[in-house]
Amino acid sequence: MGEIASKEQLRMSFLRWALVTVPAVLFLGFLSGKITNSGYDNRWFLALSRPEIVPPGWVFGAVWSSLYILMGVALAMVLHARGAAGRGLALGLFGAQFVLNLCWSPLFFGAHQVTLALYLILVIFALVAATAYYFMRIRKAAGVLLLPYLAWLAFASVINFQIDRLNPDAEGLVPEAPHTQIQL
Hints:
By secondary structure, the protein is an all-alpha fold. The chain has one domain (7-171): Ferritin, CATH 1.20.1260.100. The protein has seven helices and no strands.
């Protein structure tokens, strides 16, 4: 019973974690955006004044999919590191930032709370920075995998700030409803 696992057994254990965490993180991220109709299909968002740095819609889908995959792999690495010092704190920080991440789209796109979404994204940034630090202490690669996420959050914060500045009445903005005329 006191045998040490082989490298192959350890690799398979990590793969089992990754087969759960990557699809789960991807699915939950996708669901959060889909529920609130986030992005360029949202009439409220299209009615906002947007800064020139806002990328095309496909960029958001590609970037977030990539980031969620990296987050899922990083999470699997830390989950796989049983017995590592600070693992519980690192996982708690990951969970906190991820829950808040999932709340951002409903707050911004669903509730139209641009200013609160800006404050939220800043809190997420701080939590991800702390998560990356503690992940690096457990598995350096796991922390490094979160760095693109931090970079994107910094960029998204700038976009959120500029949208807030350009649209002081964003919360009350009601886009014109689409109309269809049927002619007989």
